[in-house]
């Protein structure tokens, strides 16, 4: 019996060692899979977080763009159109250039300040038209669709015909206002009239449709 166990002892030990090795390999394989699955889980979590951040940024950008679009569609817009040149009925004859201010937006324009000036000149390409918001007249608020007619702050004597030369009347200025969304805006304008287009007969009248937007003047808006 002793000889039997002595004979099979090494075989049993070898079998136990083999089983232990297999168990260790199985444990190592399980551990590797656990590490790999954990890594995959972490990667999936990071990817999900990245998608969430990206979606949040996209949504924020869309909301911001929508808000800006709404403001552009709803804000106050003050446009300025020519309103002709008329002779004042006073003892001292003077002509005055007029403009028509209109709020073509959808909300009130507030803190509206307006400056209108005019000049008679034989220079068709006049390019100096100073405007200053600090000296502009405060006219308050202009509601949507409202039109405000204003004349130049100073008139001029009716121009006399000059042989061999043309005479022009320039009406220019600016309007500054708040657009309903706490943004400061402006509209600058410059209209030119040829005195040859005056209405025939007594007095001195040039119709609004005879005006031209002077391409060397202030025709800009924000």
Q: Could you describe the 3D structure shown?
A:
Helices cover 33% and strands 33% of the residues. With 222 residues, the chain is of the alpha+beta class. Strands 3, 4, 6, 7, 9 and 10 form a six-stranded antiparallel β-sheet that branches. It has a four-stranded antiparallel β-sheet with strand order 5-2-1-8, with no helix packed on it. A hairpin with a 5-residue loop joins strand 6 and strand 7. The longest helix has 73 residues, at 2-74. The protein is rod-shaped and about 125 Å long. The model has no long low-confidence stretch (mean pLDDT 84).
Cα gyration radius (Å)? 42 Å
Taking the sheet with the most strands, its summary is:
6 strands, antiparallel
Helix content: 25-40%
Distance between the termini: 110 Å
Number of strands: 10
Average pLDDT, rounded to a whole number, is: 84
User: What is the number of helices?
Assistant: 1
Q: Which spans of ≥5 residues are poorly predicted at pLDDT below 50?
A: none
Listing every helix as H and every strand as E from the N terminus to the C terminus, the arrangement reads: HEEEEEEEEEE
Shape: rod-shaped
Please report which band the strand proportion falls in: under 5%, 5-15%, 15-25%, 25-35%, 35-45% or over 45%: 25-35%
Structural class: alpha+beta
């Amino acid at each position: 019996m002793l000889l039997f166990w002595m004979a099979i002892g090494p075989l049993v030990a070898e079998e136990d060692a083999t089983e232990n090795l297999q168990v260790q390999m199985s444990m190592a394989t399980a551990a590797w899979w656990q590490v790999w699955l954990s890594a995959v889980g972490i990667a999936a979590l990071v990817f999900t977080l990245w998608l969430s951040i990206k979606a949040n940024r996209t949504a924020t950008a869309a909301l911001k763009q929508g808000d800006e679009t709404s403001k552009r569609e709803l804000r106050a817009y003050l446009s300025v159109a020519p309103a002709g040149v008329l002779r004042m009925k006073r003892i001292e004859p003077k002509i005055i250039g007029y403009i028509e201010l209109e709020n073509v937006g959808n909300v009130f324009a507030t803190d509206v300040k307006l400056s209108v000036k005019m000049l008679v000149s034989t220079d068709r390409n006049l390019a100096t038209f100073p405007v200053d918001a600090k000296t502009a007249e405060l006219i308050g608020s202009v509601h949507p669709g409202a039109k405000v007619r204003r004349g130049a702050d100073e008139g001029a004597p009716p121009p006399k015909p000059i042989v061999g030369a043309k005479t022009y009347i320039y009406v220019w200025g600016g309007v500054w206002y708040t657009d309903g969304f706490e943004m400061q805006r402006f509209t600058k304008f410059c209209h030119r009239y040829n005195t040859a287009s005056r209405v025939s007969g007594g007095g001195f009248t040039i119709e609004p449709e005879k005006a031209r937007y002077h391409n060397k003047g202030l025709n800009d808006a924000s």
